[in-house]
Specification:
Blueprint lengths: L2 H19 L8 E6 L4 E7 L4 E7 L3 H4 L8 H17 L6 E3 L8 H11 L5
Parallel strand pairs: 1-4
Antiparallel strand pairs: 1-2, 2-3
Helix pairs in contact: 3-4
Length: about 120
């Protein structure tokens, strides 16, 4: 098995392990973070009904022009703040954080802090 496949397999295992423990409900949906090399994406998901309530990312028209890069901690914080504002407007006050198998560090941590700063509780 080459190195890239091994990394992808490890990430898949970690994602499955987190999803086995974390589930969102209508009262407390799941905040899911997906990180790529170029961008960062976040969704607030109600797993009971299988619907996405709110989403934000660095490719969002509201953020795209104001960001120098979609792959740094400043961009992640901006996405977290935008997601937090949208979630509060949608009536979501508290969420369960799903870091997507990634370490709670860097861009993932910055997005979480931005969402907390906008008023989300987790």
């Amino acid at each position: 098995m080459n190195k890239m496949r091994a990394k992808a397999a490890g990430l898949s295992r970690r994602q499955a392990r987190v999803r086995g423990k974390v589930s969102g409900t209508a009262e407390r949906p799941r905040l899911r973070v997906t990180r790529s090399n170029a961008n960062i994406y976040a969704q607030v998901i109600d797993d009971a009904s299988g619907t996405t309530l709110v989403a934000a990312s660095t490719i969002d028209p509201e953020l795209r022009d104001g960001l120098s890069s979609g792959s740094n901690v400043e961009a992640a914080r901006a996405v977290g703040e935008l997601l937090g504002r949208r979630a509060i407007e949608a009536g979501v006050k508290s969420v369960v954080f799903d870091r997507g198998g990634r370490l709670y560090h860097g861009r993932v941590k910055s997005l979480a802090e931005g969402a907390r700063g906008a008023g989300l509780e987790f």
